[in-house]
Design a protein that fits this description.
Low-confidence stretches: none
Helix content: 40-55%
Strand content: 15-25%
Strand order of the largest sheet: 3-2-1-4-5
Shape: globular
Radius of gyration: 13 Å
Mean pLDDT: 91
Largest sheet: 5 strands, parallel
Distance between the termini: 11 Å
Number of helices: 6
């Protein structure tokens, strides 16, 4: 499956830790990320990640284009709802596209863990029929 990973600045360390914890599961899938998030994940996990531009420089739109083409099966976007920065991706377009194309979308650690464990159990295989 193809998984997109996005994280606001305040959640990048959490995303790194998430990817360390679930390295075994993530390593079985194709990973895509906005630039800085992808680089930081690669530094601590050695996972192979296709990196787009930084979110505020167009990476969010690049992932959005993949969503519109049904090329992403799962999005994990660790958002910081308390201190949003003007340079960070807002996520509303990503959320809209996930809702439009029926793509599982996690915005916090709890929902990310639920989805990654479901992925590991094979409970997201229904995504294959959408391709």
């Amino acid at each position: 499956m193809d998984i997109a990973l996005i994280a606001h600045d305040a959640k990048k360390k959490l995303m790194q830790n998430f990817c360390i914890a679930y390295h075994g599961i993530l390593s079985k899938h194709e990973l895509f990320a906005t630039g800085t998030t992808g680089r930081l994940i690669e530094e601590v996990t050695n996972l192979n990640i296709h990196k787009y531009l930084a979110g505020h420089l167009g990476g969010e739109q690049q992932i959005g284009a993949q969503l519109e083409q049904n090329q992403i099966d799962l999005v994990i976007f660790l958002r910081d709802p308390l201190t949003p920065k003007s340079h960070e991706p807002q996520g509303s377009n990503i959320m809209r596209l996930c809702d439009t194309y029926n793509i599982p979308f996690a915005t916090n650690l709890a929902s990310a863990e639920l989805l990654i464990k479901a992925l590991d159990r094979g409970e997201l295989e229904w995504r294959e029929m959408y391709k």
